[in-house]
Each structure stands twice: as structure tokens, then as C-alpha cells.
Amino acid sequence: MKVRYHYVEKEDVKYCEVSSTVKEAYELLKETGYRSIPVLKDNGKVFVGFIYKVHLLEHYVEHEGKDEDSIESLIANQEAYIYEEDSFFKTFLTIRRLPFLAVLNEAEEFSGIITHSNVMDVLEDSFGMKTGGYLLTVGTKEHKGAIKDLVTAVKDVNIEGLLTLDNGDQYIRRVILNLSHDLSEKKLAKIIKKLEERDFRVTSVDKVNESIGSK
């Protein structure tokens, strides 16, 4: 899964040019309501970094800054970017406390941004929020082939998604199975029974309605 499938494209992104004044950047941030926006140069082609509303306010209040001052010295997070062809999961390692990441194409040009909302969309998809279904949280003693054994136990039903938690734990791992929404309660009960007969523990079952992901 590539970043290029899950980001906000440039035409939908508010940004300011590196030549902007403090007042221009501040007015744009007030207009958008965002705490930070990208800063670009060369007519919007090259990513320079982020400008934060809090840094602009500090410039005014703490440093007696003027409206016509340049924003260049206030630009932060110059390395906060990722490429369209990068794996989307690299986003999890990079975005963390940042409000967003800039997305660059293969020519090193600014293509857009990837936000925490984009990350949540991918997670919701893995939980079946778009298709609906049953989410089974399954506990298993960590051992070689545990995931294979789990999948084999439910091989006769459609697995819409699978997410593992507690990776690296020496004793217990939790696995979230997203099973098809068209399962009958009787069939679901049989699956749970089969899992528990194979020493898996089903700790919770949640039904996700397709309408939640279709808003």
C-alpha cells in the first residue's frame, strides 16, 4: 500500500510561500483555522517546511516582531516529508507528533499532505468500518506458527482483515479478525467454539455496521 493512494492533493491544501510576511502567514492561518500549514517556494513546487500559528504569535509578543517581517526564520520541520511511492506504513513511524507530513513526488515536487485523518481512515478500513462485519479479538499464547494456526481455524469463512497487537510480547498476543458481515449468528458461534477448542481465547466480539463507514 503506497502513500499516493491516501493523501490530500495539493489543490486542496492551504499553504503560504516562503516570501510571505508574518502578517500574511498569520492571516492565512486565522482564515483556515489550522495550527500549521506548509511553506513552499518556486511557485508552490518545493516544500520548505511548516509555519505554526504559535510561532507567529511568539514572534509578535516575545520578540516584538513586525507585520512585514519575513517568515523564513520561523519555518520549522523542514524534514517532515514522505514520498508518494513510500509504503503508507512508513507514515506511522514518521508523523507521530506532527500535524501532517508533506508528500513529494519522484521529481521532489510538493504533491500534497498526509494527515492524521488519512491515517485513521486506513485504520478504520482495517477494522471493517467501510464494509461492516464482525470484529473478533482473539488472545493466543505466543508461539511459532500462531497466526497460521488461527487463520487455518477460520479458513472456511471470508477474512476481511487481520490486525495483530502486542507484537514482540513473549507470552500473549492479541489478534483482531475482521470477518464477513454476512455470517449468521449460528455460524459465528461455531467459529468461536472452534477457536477456543484450539486454545485461542475470544475476548470480545463487536459487530460493525456498514453504514458507519459509508457516511
Describe the structure.
This protein has 215 residues and is of the alpha+beta class. The protein folds into 2 domains: 3-121, Roll (CBS-domain); 131-214, ACT domain (Alpha-Beta Plaits), CATH 3.30.70. It has helices at residues 22-32, 53-61, 90-94, 116-126, 146-153, 185-197; strands at 8-9, 16-17, 36-41, 46-52, 81-83, 100-104, 110-115, 133-141, 159-165, 172-179, 201-208. The longest helix is centred in the last third of the chain and has 13 residues, at 185-197. It starts with 7 loop residues before the first strand and ends in a 7-residue tail after the last strand. Keywords: CBS domain. Pfam families: CBS (PF00571).
Write the layout of secondary structure elements.
Layout: E1 8-9, E2 16-17, H1 22-32, E3 36-41, E4 46-52, H2 53-61, E5 81-83, H3 90-94, E6 100-104, E7 110-115, H4 116-126, E8 133-141, H5 146-153, E9 159-165, E10 172-179, H6 185-197, E11 201-208
Parallel strand pairs: 2-3, 5-6
Antiparallel strand pairs: 1-7, 3-4, 6-7, 8-10, 8-11, 9-10
InterPro entries: CBS_dom (IPR000644), CBS_dom_sf (IPR046342), Lmo0553-like (IPR017036)
Organism: Metabacillus herbersteinensis
Keywords: CBS domain
